[in-house]
């Protein structure tokens, strides 16, 4: 039973926040739908928030105001609006909001993704870029996958491509981050894919504690309990990795980013605190960022190719001309695969793996396009909506890689029609490495094999339903039958 003091406290907090919200409304906020008391617009958002916000923004405009509980949100849904928030006023919106799930899953937001903008965050980004993300640590794991698929093709059996690609990206990510392969059992009996996807979903669920701070301690949805249990799994795994590095470090060998960070904790040369918690937060950040986004991107590309046999044929024809059929694709071939590059861009346009990016946070009051953006507002850049903006794209719902033929539009954050990696200070630092890995995996699988859907399924029947999280995945695993096609 709730105490009378708690009830009075709740009433006072609600009254104060309602007053503050009312005073904000006197300024010209962006347009938005009519909300309801207390909830604001939470009731308008369903299983796929990026789709719901796209639908609502079509009525209210590319800079839209919505209120989730007591927290103001700005939804950005056009290239022109995105440029203002991510370039013109980049520094104002370089923050990350407080986030209950991230608090537990990133050691109180000590990672790069959710870290507070400031000296520590800038140092961490530079460290990750120099020590890991610019390093050519792409291993040859894809060769093992090709060999396994070759045997599957001889037996004419269906392959769970979602599971196989996930296993491949897990191994590659562990090698890139930890310089060592880890088995699924090393993190949890459920394995890397299940555990990390659960983290992505929990971090994306609308937690009442984020929108009604005084309700956070009650954990009415049970989310905090689940997140704490998951954080224990990650903490145990990261401690194991660190212990392995401490032990192996005494024996010499190649140093990686974990060794570098451990040496920083001992040097005490930074202007801010840097301890074991920071090491674990950055380690996990790098693992999740390199694994889950890569696997999901490859899945969506292969799904579109299976759904569009004409496009699949053109990609294979280009591979035959550039590479031939007597050897496998190598990283050095990628720059010559122009049509494959178009396919990757078109897939990112229709299936951005982080359709709302990570939320930005206004560090001060700002005026954008004549609208007042209040301090501490959370900014959603809806790349799903931007990719379907009819003023930016012809036939936006159609999968058509040829739209990029002769186009200068790139996906590295300079052209705001296409923002799969974000832009500005908070743009993804692992973009270049991620693109290489994605293109190489797709090129290998399409070059080495012909693919068909199982059970005589027609391409038009392939289910493309999304499952929302910080990273949007296929709701159903992608199943296909491979046939080996190289002459070796």
Automatic annotation (TrEMBL):
InterPro entries: Cyt_P450, Cyt_P450_CS, Cyt_P450_E_grp-I, Cyt_P450_sf. Its main location: membrane. It is a single-pass membrane protein. It holds the Pfam family p450. Its cofactor is heme. GO terms for cellular component: membrane. Heme binds at residue 428. This is Cytochrome P450 CYP736A12-like. Keywords: Heme, Iron, Membrane, Metal-binding, Monooxygenase, Oxidoreductase, Transmembrane, Transmembrane helix. It comes from Olea europaea subsp. europaea. Coiled coil: none annotated.
């Amino acid at each position: 039973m709730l105490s009378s003091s708690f009830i009075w406290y709740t009433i006072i907090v609600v009254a104060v926040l309602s007053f503050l919200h009312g005073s904000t409304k006197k300024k010209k906020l962006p347009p938005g739908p009519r909300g309801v008391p207390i909830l604001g617009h939470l009731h308008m958002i369903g299983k796929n928030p990026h789709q719901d916000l796209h639908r609502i923004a079509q009525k209210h405009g590319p800079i839209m105001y919505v209120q989730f509980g007591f927290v103001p949100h700005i939804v950005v849904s056009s290239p022109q609006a995105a440029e203002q928030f991510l370039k013109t006023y980049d520094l104002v919106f370089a923050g990350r909001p407080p986030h209950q799930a991230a608090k537990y899953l990133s050691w109180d937001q000590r990672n790069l993704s959710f870290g507070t903008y400031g000296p520590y965050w800038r140092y961490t980004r530079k460290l990750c870029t120099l020590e890991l993300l610019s390093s050519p640590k792409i291993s040859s794991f894809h060769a093992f996958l090709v060999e396994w698929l070759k045997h599957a093709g001889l037996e004419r059996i269906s392959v769970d491509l979602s599971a196989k690609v996930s296993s491949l990206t897990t191994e590659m990510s562990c090698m890139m981050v930890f310089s060592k392969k880890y088995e699924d059992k090393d993190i949890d009996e459920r394995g890397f894919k299940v555990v990390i996807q659960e983290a992505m979903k929990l971090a994306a669920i609308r937690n009442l504690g984020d929108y009604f701070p005084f309700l956070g301690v009650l954990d009415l949805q049970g989310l905090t309990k689940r997140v704490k249990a998951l954080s224990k799994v990650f903490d145990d795994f990261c401690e194991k990795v660190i212990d392995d590095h401490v032990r192996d470090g005494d024996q010499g060998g190649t140093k990686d980013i974990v060794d570098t960070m451990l040496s920083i904790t001992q040097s005490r040369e930074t202007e801010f605190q840097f301890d074991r918690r920071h090491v674990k937060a950055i380690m996990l950040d790098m693992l999740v960022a390199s694994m889950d986004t890569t696997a999901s991107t490859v899945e969506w590309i292969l799904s579109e190719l299976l759904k569009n046999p004409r496009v699949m044929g053109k990609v294979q024809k280009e591979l035959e001309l550039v590479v031939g059929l007597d050897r496998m694709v190598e990283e050095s071939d990628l720059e010559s695969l122009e049509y494959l590059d178009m396919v990757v861009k078109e897939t990112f346009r229709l299936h951005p793996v982080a359709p709302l990016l990570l939320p930005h946070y206004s560090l001060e009051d700002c005026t954008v396009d004549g609208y007042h953006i209040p301090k501490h507002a959370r900014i959603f850049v809806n790349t799903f909506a931007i990719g379907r903006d009819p003023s930016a794209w012809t036939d936006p719902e159609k999968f058509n890689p040829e739209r990029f033929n002769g186009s200068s539009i790139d996906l590295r954050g300079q052209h705001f029609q296409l923002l799969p990696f974000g832009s500005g200070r908070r743009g993804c630092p692992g973009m270049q490495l991620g693109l290489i890995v994605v293109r190489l995996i797709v090129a290998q699988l399409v070059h080495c094999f012909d693919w068909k859907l199982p059970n005589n399924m027609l391409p038009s029947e392939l289910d493309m339903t999304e499952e929302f999280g910080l990273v949007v995945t296929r709701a159903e695993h992608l199943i296909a039958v491979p046939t080996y096609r190289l002459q070796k």
